[in-house]
Amino acid sequence: xxxxxxxxxxxxxxxxxxxxxxxxxxxxxxxxxxxxxxxxxxxxxxxxxxxxxxxxxxxxxxxxxxxxxxxxxxxxxxxxxxxxxxxxxxxxxxxxxxxxxxxxxxxxxxxxxxxxxxxxxxxxxxxxxxxxxxxxxxxxxxxxxxxxxxxxxxxxxxxxxxxxxxxxxxxxxxxxxxxxxxxxxxxxxxxxxxxxxxxxxxxxxxxxxxxxxxxxxxxxxxxxxxxxxxxxxxxxxxxxxxxxxxxxxxxxxxxxxxxxxxxxxxxxxxxxxxxxxxxxxxxxxxxxxxxxxxxxxxxxxxxxxxxxxxxxxxxxxxxxxxxxxxxxxxxxxxxxxxxxxxxxxxxxxxxxxxxxxxxxxxxxxxxxxxxxxxxxxxxxxxxxxxxxxxxxxxxxx
Amino acid sequence: xxxxxxxxxxxxxxxxxxxxxxxxxxxxxxxxxxxxxxxxxxxxxxxxxxxxxxxxxxxxxxxxxxxxxxxxxxxxxxxxxxxxxxxxxxxxxxxxxxxxxxxxxxxxxxxxxxxxxxxxxxxxxxxxxxxxxxxxxxxxxxxxxxxxxxxxxxxxxxxxxxxxxxxxxxxxxxxxxxxxxxxxxxxxxxxxxxxxxxxxxxxxxxxxxxxxxxxxxxxxxxxxxxxxxxxxxxxxxxxxxxxxxxxxxxxxxxxxxxxxxxxxxxxxxxxxxxxxxxxxxxxxxxxxxxxxxxxxxxxxxxxxxxxxxxxxxxxxxxxxxxxxxxxxxxxxxxxxxxxxxxxxxxxxxxxxxxxxxxxxxxxxxxxxxxxxxxxxxxxxxxxxxxxxxxxxxxxxx
Lengths: 397, 397
Hints:
By secondary structure, chain A is α/β, with parallel strands linked by helices. Chain A has two domains: 173 residues, Rossmann fold; 195 residues, Dehydroquinate synthase-like, alpha domain (Up-down Bundle). Chain A has 15 helices and eleven strands. In chain A, strands 1, 2, 3, 4, 5, 6 and 9 form a seven-stranded parallel beta sheet that branches. In chain A, strands 7-8 form a two-stranded antiparallel sheet. In chain A, strand 5, helix 5 and strand 6 form a beta-alpha-beta unit. In chain A, helix 7 packs antiparallel against helix 8, helix 11 packs across helix 14 and helix 12 packs antiparallel against helix 13. At the A-B interface, strand 1, helix 4, strand 7, strand 8 and helix 10 of A face strand 1, helix 4, strand 7, strand 8 and helix 10 of B. Chains A, B: It comes from Hymenobacter roseosalivarius DSM 11622.
């Protein structure tokens, strides 16, 4: 008997808001309460909070503030167990035990698909908690409350969750949109300079490949941004978040096809984080990655020396390093797992299929290429090394 | 500064074929080769095979057949490492080490998002391998080759992946459609009677709530189905698969809202599997669950005694048990974790929100209710107990 094939075909709609506020857990701020009150459920909603330990250190009253907030809005909200502290930073994504602890909490506190697992913290904690939320009961509702520039304008507002495994960044993960995102600018005031600055790298990245006007905004205000002028940073975060959301919605949100994430500068950034054992933080690594692929774009004749000099100047005014010593170890041996160039292969494998690297055809215009000339990339690394010693971009000798 | 909220909104399209064939790995069968050749990639595609040990025992030449098939189609296919044997049956979903082993294989053999992780086996192996495939690199392509009636007509063709945790079925999982499904009827010939029969329970389930004509088909052929007439089984699987695919596509495929999976008879089935330490297999448990909720529907006046008798008769002709001794232990103590009635609470928690149980308003018509009368359910259990002693459905005394 021959039976016809069946073709399954369907669409799934996803939507979530990204809110901007200051003082999310002040009892008088109705935002969180209102968003959950509109979920169509019956009160009170169970919420389990996972809090980045780094944030808790900077905000020692936050846990009691959360408890007070929930108590004050007991008609809508209910705590599911005590606020859990999660060790912050990329290292939390290397600890399977933390995911397991969150899953145990989901089990112990009977958090179901209509309950909420809220994460407050930097991108790493959001990634890790989001991963646990996405696989528990095939997905409990995930609230993201990003506390860093990087997570507020990029990683925290997207659809990806992940943890590291086998020494590889984001080896495990999936696509699972959050229920809602709350960007609370109050958290930015207490950031270390490194983390304040780090998040700007993702804004630079997206401006360089998509929006020259946004690059000019950052160029004009680079010194003020470095001096931590909060209103400028708020504008930067809002615009950067908007560009990232548009990219996700306009393309192939779950990266099923050949559509790419906004990953300019990222192949080397991922590798540098790993090579430096995460001494170099993600935003810092992205800044170096941007510098590297800008130099490479210039060496390929895609970017003028003036444009390259502008990019390098903005990075430096913001206070970024342009180079790290790990970049030259085993550099010319692309097959060596400790070589920066090995990152190209890992990058290809992680996304699958053909190698695709974003370069610049001028400021504001990204272009995808499928081949990288190792020798030219080595030359680009050496050029960055010279910049780090004070040499400035100039026409080739 | 007050900045407007951003609303993210997008749709993701999913599609995959469900093919029907016999002898998928016969070198002369072009199906598998052709499907992968059309993936838009460049040859050869890496495929890693995970094979249910139970299937391997019944088909001792399968591994070498797979190797020969891949070699014969080397322009399109390439093996990524040796065929991995996975201990079959529900127990494989209780072993986190198996997921870990698959992830290690993904890492070791450089299986990327454009490579394939193929699972050959019963529903449990497909669920487990599918889960690993869905989280590795945020999703490598998953080929499902279901070998049982149950997986060919239900679990293997849908969008769910899962493993068990904390003693709870499917506690971990997600929604991730397969790349393609291949139903190979040749595997059905070697099934144990229990597994041949077990899969019919899901067909009965979907017919009772959706399609009276399909129920009449099974009623007319119950004896022939029990006698293992393969062409009838092929028709049953095709129609059942079609109904399941329609339900997924027509509703809320990722169960984000209040839309429900086709889970008639399943709240008690899940609990019975657990209470019997998986001695009772899923299809067998579903048959009991169908009987139980049919009796309950009758006791509520939704189903006539004649309709109930027809359902019970079909289940018996097919060879199903209607009752298991685990059903009466701690029965009246719904708070006891070993009580069948505790399954109602677990079922609610797993899906979240309000309790929703499917009952029957006549054959072919499901109806959702949000409350279960414990006393009436206890009475339904006792009635099944009496049926198992030879008493037949009749009007209440």
